[in-house]
Amino acid sequence: MGISIDCLVDNHSAIGEGAVWDVNTQRLWWVDIPVGLVHCTDVTCGTTETRTVGEPVGCLALREQSGLVLATSKGFKVLDWDSGALSPIADPEAHLPGNRFNDGQTDPAGRFWAGTMHDPIAPEEPPSGTFYRLDADHSVTAWRSVFYTCNGLAFSPDGTRMYFSDSFPAVRNIYVCDYDLDSGTPGPPELFFDTRDVAGRPDGGTVDADGCYWQAGVGGWQLYRITPDGRLDQTIDLPIERPSRPMFGGPNLDTLYLTTLGAGVTPGTEQPQAGGLFAITGLGVQGVPQTRFPG
């Protein structure tokens, strides 16, 4: 059986991102960053419910209690899905009005990690992106304020490694560090993969059950599987130029869902479904469940 790539939701998102699979409801949650939309897609029928947040939202995590925790342009917030009500938690970058949260996800213990960026990118300025850890008690811890575009957060299945990237064109590196799951503390980062060796810059990422890291190659029309030792294992050509966030889902966690960007595509290229949500099957690998945020 070969690989199949199908557009599940053809909604032309500006910046589709933040895909998270809900193993309890068998639904996919994702966002459209600049217009502040949170989507919930029933993948069996393709129907999507949407809530308008009212501010750019970079990523989300499911909560153990109910609803979602969001990382937005105004900090961490709780979204009550039924009512649409937003409750603030903390805004660690209130002093940086040009910044917003971008990519993030929970670690295997449920802590919510998310990173920021200046929007739009200001290459003439020093990098101002920072990764933050939101704990169950709603305390926030900053980690390494040296990035232009915080991206690609993912954790190995056993929680001992943390992956992340900086998508900025002059950097475009993926990094890895040892991770202390008991304390939620990363060690010193090391270069994991230089995406100058492939067509696409690094965007969102996830891991599979084998411990391999899947990277959306934004701008490169490709998706990459990278082994734990940093070796390019598989390249998948895509019908869209700007893939943004892969996430395994489905009853057996063997379908790779992929958000994409409709904004910034190369003029004149044939990609009418850019910005849609795609489903990739036939990969022959499974993902790992995403842990819910306990706070």
Automatic annotation (TrEMBL):
GO terms for molecular function: calcium ion binding; enzyme regulator activity; gluconolactonase activity. The keyword Cytoplasm applies. GO terms for biological process: L-ascorbic acid biosynthetic process. GO terms for cellular component: cytoplasm. A divalent metal cation binds at E17, N151, D203. Residues 15-261 form the SMP-30/Gluconolactonase/LRE-like region domain. It catalyses: D-glucono-1,5-lactone + H2O = D-gluconate + H(+). It is found in: Cytoplasm. Its cofactor is Mg(2+); Zn(2+); Ca(2+); Mn(2+). Its EC number is 3.1.1.17. It is an enzyme of class 3 (hydrolase). Pfam families: SGL. Binds 1 divalent metal cation per subunit. Keywords: Calcium, Cytoplasm, Hydrolase, Metal-binding, Zinc. The keyword Flavoprotein does not apply. The active site is at D203. Substrate binds at R100, N102. Belongs to the SMP-30/CGR1 family. This is Regucalcin.
